[in-house]
Amino acid sequence: MGLSTFRGGAHPYEGKALSENKPIKTLEAGDELVFPMSQHIGAPATPVVNVGDEVKMGQRIGEASGFISANIVSSVSGKVKAIEPRTLSSGAKATCVVIENDKNYTPIDGLGTERDYKSLSKDEIRQIIKDAGIVGMGGAGFPTNVKVTPKNEDAIDHVIINGAECEPYLTSDYRLMLERPEELIEGLRVVLSIFKNAKGVIAIEDNKPEAIEKLTYLTESDPNITVKRLKTKYPQGAERQIIYVTTGRRLHAKLLPADVGCIVDNVQTMLAIYDAVVKQTPSMTRVMTLTGEAMADPQNYLVRFGMSHAEVLDAAGGLKPEGAAKLISGGPMMGMAMYTLDTPITKTSSSILAFSEDEVLKNEPTNCIRCGRCASVCPCHLVPQMMAQAGERNDLEAFEALNGMECYECGTCTFVCPAKRRLTQTFKQCRQAVMAKNRKAQAEAAAKKKAEEEAAANKGKEDA
Q1: In whole angstroms, how far apart are CA 67 and each of 51, 177, 248, 369?
Q2: CA distances for 317 relative to 214, 296, 311, 326, angstroms
Q3: Backbone angles phi, psi at 413, to 5 degrees
Q4: How many CB atoms sit inside 10 A of residue 109's CB?
Q5: Using CA atoms, how far apart are residues 289 and 176, in angstroms rounded to an integer?
Q6: Nearest to 116 by CA among 275, 278, 274
Q7: How far apart are CA 107 and CA 310, in angstroms?
Q8: Residue 342, φ and ψ in degrees, nearest 5
Q9: Of 163, 115, 126, whose CA–CA distance to 281 is shortest?
Q10: How many C-beta atoms surround the C-beta of residue 131 within 10 A?
Q11: Which of 126, 283, 399, 453 has the fewest C-beta atoms under 10 angstroms from its C-beta?
Q12: What are the backbone angles phi and psi of residue 43, rounded to the nearest 5°?
């Protein structure tokens, strides 16, 4: 019987050998840490501290400001130095709380104290996850407390740990599966305790045999948890693909995993749940991979949120003498090129990749040769060639008619294109334009409805 996989996808150079056998090291923070209030999908958190305040490690400094939002906690103790806009890795600006690190790491009361999660109710576990500020740490940044609070919890029959880590070069999740396997499994049991009808699945690509072997051994006596071996292929770790290969259920853009009975969390998110619920430790750190051909010492590092990318790179040994042609935050397929390293580490900062060559600049795009490779590899079964044509003429209606909003910008089409066309970039711009158009239409409809209601109320007063 073949390994579980999906139709489409590609096999980019893995590059994982640079850091996969490097145990996680801890980097200490510097003098100043910067905490963006926007580290997640949804509304930014609202600062709940003031300039001059003394804060402790683990203290909440940003309050979730809506249903889709997340708390922010300080990863150090010290004094609030400023609350001001700072630049993020994406190039956008966000309100940030700047803390001067006193290097004492004075904790809040109870930080790190063990707790028996079995004595907690479902709602108490959900509240702990919310209080801890946990979000999807695989890159999406969706608030985890919202994810574990579906409309119908009885319909959830799969809780999936996404251990695919299909992006080339990244190895942080792999190292965590090897170094914290028991805690990872216990984190899964915490989530399973919320959903009485669910079974746990740990899905791992077959290029990680040691992790598969270790987690299989540790769960072989647990009838509620299985380890599923997946074929190594990009983007196997995408949420839609991991659900399909695990359950056979298909997910499209208008559905959430809970709509098909699934909760999906990546390795670091599940460990953050364990830390919060069992160890009373909120979301303050993550493991990053610093790697690439231009990196002096490829390695996996435990870092505190709020540290700067420049600080982390310097502490890790920096670049090779010849420097790097390109630096990327995230994986090479879906990550973002960085024009500055003076940006803070956030909950979704997975890596710094340093490349000696810039593949984008090296290859100038040419006209489409109509080979069809982009369509053959698209995991969403779209037709990128036609979508690109619609995008180039700014025909958003045609783009939508071609199901362009189903694209999740995995970059597979761009990777295989022999003409080196920047397809994913076009689709990203089109999707943003469609979403902006829809938001405008919704705002206009709401304003029109409000005006009609006010007019009707005024007419009623006049008639009276």
Answers
A1: 27, 31, 31, 47
A2: 31, 6, 10, 17
A3: -65, -45
A4: 8
A5: 11
A6: 278
A7: 26
A8: -85, 55
A9: 115
A10: 16
A11: 453
A12: -70, 140
For the chain, 464 residues long, the average pLDDT of each consecutive 10-residue run is 80 96 96 96 95 98 94 98 94 94 97 96 98 92 96 97 97 98 98 97 97 98 96 95 95 92 97 98 98 97 97 95 94 93 96 93 91 96 96 96 96 96 96 94 90 84 72
DSSP secondary structure code for residue 317 in this structure: T
- Rounded to 5°, the CA angle 301-306-309 comes to 55
Question: What pLDDT, on the 0 to 100 scale, is given for residue 265?
Answer: 97
**Closest by alpha carbon to 140, among 289, 304, 265?**
265
Kindly give, in sequence order, each residue whose CB lies less than 8 Å from that of residue 15, ignoring residues fewer than 6 positions away.
168, 169, 291, 292, 332
Report phi then psi at 355, rounded to 5.
-110, 140
> Could you give the strand order of the β-sheet that contains 93-101, starting from the edge strand earlier in sequence?
32-36, 93-101, 78-87, 54-55
Radius of gyration of the chain, Cα coordinates, nearest whole angstrom: 23
Q: Tell me the backbone φ, ψ of residue 91, rounded to 5 degrees.
A: 95, -15
The closest alpha carbon to 75, from 121, 38, 106, belongs to: 106
C-alpha 16/C-alpha 232 separation (Å) is 12
Structure tokens at 34: 């910067």
Q: Which tokens is 247 given?
A: 């359950």
The secondary structure of 220-273 as a DSSP string is: TT-TTEEEEEE---BTTTSHHHHHHHHH-----TT--GGGGTEEEEEHHHHHHH
Cβ burial of 194 (10 Å; 0-12, 13-18, 19+) is buried
What pLDDT does 1 receive?
43
Q: Which of 403, 393, 405 is nearest to 437 (CA)?
A: 405
- HEC readout, 334-366: CCEECCCCCCECCCCCCEEEEECCCHHHHCCCC
Element (H, E) at 185: helix 181-192
What is the pLDDT, as a whole number, of residue 254? Answer: 87
